[in-house]
Amino acid sequence: MAGFAAIAYAQGDTPTGSTSAGGGGGSSFADMFFIARKTEVGGDGKSIEVLGSLLIWFLMLLSMLSIGFIGTMAATNQRKSIAPSLLIEEVRRMLGEGKYREVIDLTETDESFFSKVMNASLREANHGFSAVIRTLEQTSDELTTIRLRKIEYLNVLGQVSPMIGLFGTVYGMILAFQAIVAASGNADPVLLAGGIGTALTTTFWGLVVAIPALSGYAIIRNKIDELTTDATLRAEELLNQFRPKPAKAAAGAIKTKQVPRTKPTT
Fold first, then answer.
1. CB-neighbour burial class of residue 184 (10 A; exposed 0-12, middle 13-18, buried 19+)
2. Does the pLDDT at position 83 exceed 50?
3. CA-CA distance, 72 to 255, in Å (whole number)?
4. In 10 A of CB 180, how many CB atoms?
5. How far is 204 from 141, CA to CA, in rounded Å?
6. What is the torsion angle, in degrees rounded to the nearest 10, for the CA atoms of residue 170, residue 172, residue 178 and residue 179?
7. Cα–Cα distance for residue pair 260/67, rounded to 1 Å
8. Which of 231, 215, 219 has its CA nearest to residue 144?
9. Which of these, 132, 139, 183, 208, has the minimum number of CB atoms within 10 Å of its CB?
10. Could you report the per-residue pLDDT of 178-199, keeping only the tens digit for each?
11. Tally of helices (H runs) and strands (E runs) in the chain
12. Of 73-77, 107-111, 181-185, 227-231, which range is least confident?
């Protein structure tokens, strides 16, 4: 029998008793993963389930947005945009040569995290070293918070998309139970397949959105923490050369009095 089935398949005929390539009466891959369908009691064919399909397409759109946003944030938060090594070495050289005005001009035109922190700190030099360090820390915190706030959208996508998938799961199960009720408790498995398929497909797409979004969020957040901390420490290291040295006590300002030793009386 297997040989006859192979010959019939080679001739383009479908062996008796077998189903089509998509399985389940002509359903295809697109029917399972991109379109939600339902079968009415007594109906001859399947119709598109509108709400289930909209949920699937919405989750697909979120998946594409998530991948694109991950790529954008990964490209934006690289070392060259936060702590560029060549720029740091150039600033170190210029400060060593006393070109303070040139350092301010250079860091003002550069858009990196390090330049913004350094420029804001140097502009407080007239108010003393403590003001310089305080400005460095405040500017670093503010700029780091801005970068972290931008990638927070990935965290939102990762948290919300499984909830959307769960909504589709519940909705699909409702459709399945409605099919059972409509068939007076003796529903054909074909009638249940539409609701169960919607439930599983929306769950699938919800996870497709959530897993890359949460993974990308964690990786990029750690990268931002690492690079911004490194840039802040390097800026503080360069500014520490201007830390005022403690004043030396004047010679002889504090004298210790020594009591002369007296010989014991006999």
1. exposed
2. yes
3. 68
4. 14
5. 39
6. -150
7. 85
8. 231
9. 183
10. 777 776 766 666 667 667 777 8
11. 9, 2
12. 181-185
Q: Rounded mean pLDDT of the chain?
A: 78
Q: Is the pLDDT of residue 264 over 60?
A: no
Q: CA-to-CA distance for 264 and 25, rounded, in angstroms?
A: 122
257 vs 103: CA distance, rounded Å: 52
Q: Where are the beta strands (DSSP E) in the chain?
A: 37-39, 46-48
The DSSP 8-state label assigned to residue 125 in this structure reads G
Going from N- to C-terminal start, the domains of the chain cover: 46-242
Task: Say how far apart CA 119 and CA 159 lie, in whole Å.
Answer: 38
Residue whose entry in the numeric block shows the structure tokens 């500014």 = 239
Asked whether residue 118 carries a pLDDT value surpassing 60, the answer given is yes
How many whole angstroms separate alpha carbon 83 and alpha carbon 234? Answer: 9
**% of residues, the chain, pLDDT over 70:** 69
